[in-house]
Amino acid sequence: LDRAIRSDGSIISGFLCDKASSEKCVPQKLDDGLNYSEMIDSYLLLAEITGNQGYREKADKMISYILNTCSTNIRVCEINISSLAKYYKITKEAKYWQAILAVREKFVNGQGQQSLGNINFGDTLNSLYKATNDERYRNILLQLANSEISKFDDQTNTPFYSITVIRTVFIPAYGISGDS
Beta partners for 27? Predict the structure, then answer.
């Protein structure tokens, strides 16, 4: 991961190499429509566990990239809202709050892809609830968990679906409710 971070905070997703060209392989930037949250969370956790603030600086660089990109592509804020909420909770800086405000109502009004098509929806609601203490996010997460639990034993569910529901819906819902 360390080698994948570019100086602007974007992520290299791979290299495009052309055998016919004498030029070396060209790095390709990770699509701005992707979620950086797991990478940011990993660096924040590494900084916490090791005490090495270099990891925090890498997470900071990525969150800055997200904020800068949000100004021209609001979808980036929506996709990465859980990281923005986490940074707001840690720092209380207005720039993260403003980015959250730009998209948070989508998650209350059902426009934020309230399904496992956005596999981090439960995590996002949990992050928003923890950052804002707004009960609407808690209630939507608990409603989503109740809805998913009724479908959980369906034999047509794939293992990926089941693991995703556990990780992104049931665990966050249990974390805020304590109700197993």
Answer: 15
- The answer to whether the CB of 87 falls within 8 A of the CB of 93 is yes
Check: CB of residue 107 under 8 Å from CB of residue 137: yes
Q: What is the pLDDT of residues 117-158, one digit of tens each?
A: 455 677 778 878 888 888 988 888 888 888 888 777 776 777
Do residues 13 and 29 make contact, with C-beta atoms less than 8 angstroms apart?
yes
- Token pair of 123 as six digits: 């995590």
> Could you give the CA distance from residue 72 to residue 126 in angstroms, rounded to a whole number?
26
Amino acid identity of residue 31, one-letter, is: D
pLDDT in the model for residue 1: 67
How many residues are there in the chain?
180
Rounded Cα distance between 43 and 54, Å, is 9
Higher pLDDT: 12 or 172? It is 172
